[in-house]
């Protein structure tokens, strides 16, 4: 079988060689087409599209048919977007449309481009195209193909679209929205190179978060002394001791605005040669379940990464950047008014916690990063030789404080407490102890840290007993020390170690902790840690002198008492931000001077999201409900007699519906002559108007119930009603479990119009 190129007529014996050639040949065609005279645009596009069609039919199995009718001029970019989202990424048709590192998009704006500052697109078609291109990250080449396709098949005498995608991107870059603007400031100059901080204003970031729909629902405004059975309960951040002491320090009548920061450097390419250091912000006033969603966080900026032999200069650059970002907290001596739940509220913004991995936490605290330093813990002054000691007393764990560390810095004795010779900006911030605010992160401490060590050391022990298996089952792998290994670890201890780990890890994921829960958790941590040390102390090259082990054992309980449940300050929900704010924008840049390009990409993404929200299709008018069958028919005056006759022949749900029928109908209707009833039983989501919904906690405007009966009321016109037994959130404090509404069925019944039923949902028992 041979393959012939319709462009240059070359013949190939192998499909792969032909495909490679065809792609190059197409590029030559594109270059020739682009150099032609603009007066023959439509003819060129038609010719090129015909050539593409012929060429594609030779070597592609998947074919797309386009209906050539008069309705093409009304084609929707939404339908094109839907098609793109359904295509496989492995499809050869798709590879040339999506952005990829092999064909980077050049963000330099075309010269002599006539753009002007505005907040609206020239027309709906222009807007839909650019939202489509931005949403699906289509590169310039693919976007230009869409423009050619549209211009060929639409009946417009003048195209409503930009001449090319570069022009459309430049138009979006020039759109002005005050809450989407980033700035840059020179932080330092080193070896004739300028290092800039690219950032968004802190207060504007906060306002952006507060504009997210439903973000202020259950927004914490004050400390809550949450108790159960006379025990303090720690869950949301406003139940912790830090909130209580900080609130007491503020002026009477003001509220605390808790700022949570997350900072991390991440690689941008597959080889790890390039990095970007991003920092994000969210608010501790937002309930944990809502705060852990991506839209509750904002990119605050990109920190400069200084590569210099002078490490103090690197550290100073980092803290100068933080000062520039967070200085509004110091300058706002009278606080700030923010619009929360339809009223202005007086706030004082304060940094509560900083979520970071161990090296990053050391950078914030300006302590020695090395685990081999004499005092390697950034929270306390424990000595290195005591890192694996599980039985330290309170006097052995002396916490670091701003006053003490500043005193050592000013007296030039910072080496005695293992802090760097750089002024720590956080010493100047109110209501924060940076050494405690950099809380232990469960993902880096446990998942990527201690459990990683546990697996490695277990493998070493099994190898010493010549057990060469993958670790799925630990129990009964070996019995005795047949190989006479020194410091032998018996199999039972190894089994108990993993048993204790599971118990500790499950407790760490509690959504709220009572004091008795904390005692139980602390016992579980120490039980696991003792077995961990017993099993691995002589396997570990450092004899388990691991800062993460010490930090987890001695500081996590105090963190819960200060800042609430661990779920509120773990990097698990932050790591995905790198993909959206760093990796994807970097991949479609030209890899040079990337920060401005990334910010333009992020701005276009934000515009796309905003415009999409504003252009949501209006809710469809519900179709009139027509019952296909009637199970029962009776008149109102005979209802009780009818129900008594049928109650033994129906299931429990229907019996419940019969029992509640009259009382619920009385509250819904004043007078009825007769009606017909059919049965339907399902879990459903229901929409309410704004007045009704004030009494309920919603799931993004939806409320859940179980439909017991459907009834058709024979009035003129007929009324279609559903008898509902309602679900409520099991906990108003923690309404979500695993990202889903956590519900319970309650003894509350109402008739609602069938048209208000949003859809059927599946309730997992």
From TrEMBL:
It holds the Pfam family Plavaka. Residues 33-61 are annotated as: Disordered. Residues 41-51 have a biased composition (Basic and acidic residues). This is C2H2-type domain-containing protein. It comes from Rhizophagus clarus.
């Amino acid at each position: 079988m041979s393959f012939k190129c319709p462009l240059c007529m070359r013949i190939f014996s192998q499909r792969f060689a032909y495909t490679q050639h065809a792609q190059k040949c197409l590029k030559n065609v594109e270059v020739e087409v682009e150099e032609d005279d603009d007066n023959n645009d439509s003819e060129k596009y038609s010719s090129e599209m015909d050539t593409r069609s012929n060429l594609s039919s030779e070597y592609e199995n998947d074919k797309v048919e386009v209906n050539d009718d008069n309705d093409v001029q009304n084609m929707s970019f939404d339908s094109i977007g839907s098609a793109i989202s359904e295509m496989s990424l492995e499809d050869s048709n798709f590879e040339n449309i999506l952005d990829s590192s092999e064909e980077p998009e050049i963000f330099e704006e075309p010269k002599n481009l006539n753009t002007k500052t505005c907040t609206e697109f020239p027309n709906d078609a222009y807007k839909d195209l650019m939202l489509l291109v931005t949403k699906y990250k289509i590169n310039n080449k693919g976007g230009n193909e869409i423009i050619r396709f549209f211009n060929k098949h639409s009946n417009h005498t003048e195209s409503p679209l930009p001449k090319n995608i570069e022009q459309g991107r430049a138009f979006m870059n020039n759109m002005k929205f005050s809450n989407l603007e980033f700035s840059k400031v020179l932080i330092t100059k080193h070896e004739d190179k300028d290092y800039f901080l690219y950032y968004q204003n802190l207060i504007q970031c906060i306002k952006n978060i507060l504009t997210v729909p439903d973000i202020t629902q259950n927004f914490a405004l004050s400390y809550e002394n949450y108790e159960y059975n006379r025990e303090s309960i720690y869950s949301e951040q406003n139940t912790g001791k830090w909130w209580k002491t900080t609130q007491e320090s503020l002026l009477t009548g003001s509220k605390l605005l808790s700022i949570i920061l997350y900072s991390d450097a991440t690689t941008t390419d597959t080889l790890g040669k390039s990095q970007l250091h991003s920092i994000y912000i969210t608010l501790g006033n937002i309930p944990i379940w809502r705060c852990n969603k991506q839209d509750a966080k904002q990119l605050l900026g990109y920190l400069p990464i200084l590569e210099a032999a002078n490490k103090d200069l690197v550290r100073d650059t980092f803290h100068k950047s933080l000062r520039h970002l967070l200085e509004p907290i110091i300058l706002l001596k009278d606080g700030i008014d923010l619009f929360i739940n339809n009223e202005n509220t007086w706030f004082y913004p304060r940094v509560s916690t900083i979520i970071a991995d161990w090296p990053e936490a050391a950078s914030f605290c300006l302590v020695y990063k090395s685990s081999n330093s004499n005092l390697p813990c950034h929270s306390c002054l424990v000595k290195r030789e005591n890192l694996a000691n599980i039985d330290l007393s309170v006097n052995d764990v002396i916490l670091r404080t701003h006053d003490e560390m500043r005193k050592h810095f000013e007296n030039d004795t910072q080496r005695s407490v293992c802090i760097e010779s750089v002024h720590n900006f956080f010493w100047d911030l109110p209501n924060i102890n940076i050494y405690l605010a950099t809380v232990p992160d469960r993902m880096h401490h446990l998942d990527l840290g201690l459990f990683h060590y546990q697996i490695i050391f277990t493998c070493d022990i099994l190898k010493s007993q010549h057990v060469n298996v993958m670790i799925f089952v630990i129990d009964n792998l070996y019995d005795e020390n047949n190989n006479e290994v020194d410091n032998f670890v018996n199999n039972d201890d190894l089994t108990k170690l993993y048993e204790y780990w599971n118990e500790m890890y499950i407790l760490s994921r509690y959504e709220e902790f009572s004091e008795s829960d904390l005692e139980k958790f602390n016992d579980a941590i120490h039980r696991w840690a003792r077995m961990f040390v017993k099993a691995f102390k002589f396997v570990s090259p450092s004899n388990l002198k691991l800062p993460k082990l010490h930090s987890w054992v001695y500081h996590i309980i105090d963190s819960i008492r200060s800042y609430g449940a661990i779920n509120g300050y773990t990097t698990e929900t932050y790591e995905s931000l790198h993909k959206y704010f760093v990796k994807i924008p970097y991949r479609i840049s030209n890899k040079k001077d990337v920060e401005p390009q990334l910010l333009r990409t992020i701005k276009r993404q934000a515009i796309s999201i905003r415009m999409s929200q504003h252009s949501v299709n209006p809710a469809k008018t519900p179709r009139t409900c027509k019952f296909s069958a009637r199970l029962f028919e009776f008149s109102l005056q005979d209802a009780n007699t009818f129900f008594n006759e049928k109650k033994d022949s129906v299931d429990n749900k229907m019996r419940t519906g019969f029992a509640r029928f009259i009382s619920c109908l009385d509250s819904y209707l004043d007078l009825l002559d007769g009606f017909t009833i059919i049965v339907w039983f399902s879990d459903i989501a229901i929409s309410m108007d704004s007045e009704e919904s004030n009494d309920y906690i919603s799931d993004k405007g939806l409320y859940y119930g179980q439909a017991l009966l459907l009834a058709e009321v024979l009035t003129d016109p007929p009324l279609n009603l559903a008898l509902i037994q309602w679900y409520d959130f099991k906990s108003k404090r923690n309404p979500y479990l695993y990202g889903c509404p956590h519900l319970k069925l309650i003894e509350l019944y109402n008739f609602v119009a069938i048209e208000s039923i949003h859809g059927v949902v599946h309730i997992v028992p």
